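ERR on first pass: missing label on line 2. Operator R.T. fixed the label and resubmitted. Corrected input:
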Amino acid sequence: QVHLVQSGAEVKKPGASVKVSCKASGYTFSNYAINWVRQAPGQRLEWMGWINAGKGNTKYSQRFQGRVTITRDTSANITYMELSSLRSEDTAVYYCARDGYNYGSMGDYYYMDVWGKGTTVTVSS
Amino acid sequence: DIQLTQSPSFLSASVGDRVTITCRASQGVSNYLAWYQQKPGKAPKVLIYAASTLLSGVPSRFSGSGSGTEFTLTISSLQPEDFATYYCQQLNSYPRTFGQGTKVEIK
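pass 2 clean. output:
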């Protein structure tokens, strides 16, 4: 069975960094990209960025450009999301989600088909 | 960035009701749109991709339609397990934005 298992909750002070991990199992890690999505309390889902687990190339939302770094360790099937210069507004649940895909004659379609359970990051002085 | 606006943001309905949620994009996204269901304290679950293609295992009472800038998610006969928040997401361009969500509650 396909699973994404995330690291545990974190409490950080403003200005610090946090690094959240996401371990994949049950599928060929390098065949899929992994997205990072966050959700602040009572807010909508917010896409932060994506890494192609095979090639290692990344794409980030401009909103987080310069503060977020997504990396992967192919030997351990783990993806990491590091967010720096934390502020109170970064308090949220952070999810990793696999990029499912369907390549068809009408187009190449992607969707987030497997999600981790989420990691709560609290930023507070 | 492409903005997605869902309507309504909140709806109250009864078991057995037909429910329709609309998602409007600030610019065309072709049919690169997905719908997700999220229950409190849980991760989202994908229901539909390519605007109208149901994921395997998703009940057939869910359906999606639309292209370009206007999309709908319809639940033909609301079941108790369908009370949740629903989000649309565009995957036509980066950043992959989400709508603000539609919370479906029991009347």
